[in-house]
Amino acid sequence: MSLPEYGRVVIIDDNIKEVEALIKVLSKHRTSITYFTGANNELPDTPFPDVRIVFLDVVLEGLTGKDTKTIVSTLIGILGKIVDKNNGPFVIVLWTKHPEHVKGLKKALKTEKYKYILIDLEKKDFFDQNGGFKLDSYDSLRNRLNEKIAGIDIFDIFIIWENIMNNSAGITVNDFSQLIKFNDNWNNDMKNIFYKMAEAWAGKTLKEQNTQKILKNALFTFNGIFNDIFEGLIQNEKYSAYQGTFSSNNINEKNKGRINIKLLLDFSDLEKFYPGDVYRINKNAKNSSELLKDILDINKINDEKFFKIKKKSIQVFAEVTPLCDFLQEKIKLYRVIEGFIIPEKYKDEQNIDHYVKIKKAEFIYKTPVFTYKNEIYRLILDFKYFSSKTKDELKNFSPIFRLRKELLNDIQIKLSSHINRTGILFID
Known about the structure:
The chain is α/β, with parallel strands linked by helices.
């Protein structure tokens, strides 16, 4: 397994001398670490949300001779201040000479709902009877570490991705920071370049006094360069060190939905008046039934089935204004398309599931399935209901999620194709 090259590795051990050897081994892998003795006054103010590996000594200062319950309770308290509960899966590497407390620790970690993988480096093997590190044990420790973490192959993929991402960031900064000659004017010259980058993204509406806006728009341009380098490194990366295998087994619809919601939709920090925002429409909207009937293959759905589908559906509109208009403050009217978030299935009178039939038409846009409120849905947009809204009209609505860039771009391309279709005149 690869090791994170840019932090995300924590060591918790009260004895710095017992940590030195471990730090040297990790350093050889280019792995930077964050170190804690476990003392309360040294712990971070807020837990870290991106920890990948924790090297943990079980018996810290003040815990020698204490019972397992006390030791475990203290460790859980320390971990809670270092690793955020929403961190996701991480590896706990036991760096301890007291395996007798491990069972109690496992139980407590499970109770606290940590998503962890536990391995033991068997620390005692690397120290002599006087507590000193055996000088000939560096290679053994490195081999033991590689051996123990080698089996966590799916975790390895995430680490590989993070390492490539961080390498891409480093290359981007190195390349860009050397665009101009390094001399006494380098700092000001680079700031001028970043201003021009911001202007390229946001247009001539940019004001020199608005430092935050300049920085944000410059970084958007910078991000485009980074993405190109990132994709190039992925293409050229050598994956021969990866020893895992993959399964081609099918996954169920709910898992497909969970994956797609990450790929297609964003629920975080929703900003009003932003391209891709999807807004809920009041249930009593006048055109509700008319719009839904225009979307559904109504010939295969009777009135009772229609009512069931409508009851579970959510009428929405998606904001599809081009991003450049938004960034350059050229928007007079916001372009929107109406539609529905429709369940993938509905139950009949016998409680049997049936797939919802959607029209196959050029004016209908159907997303892949995604999980929303623990149900499987699709977003269906009807290009015939393409219109516009003023900013004042949009203020009456709140976004429920945002379409990610790739999905929004696909909708915009298909919408432009629908608008520009010419048709042909012929006699049949």
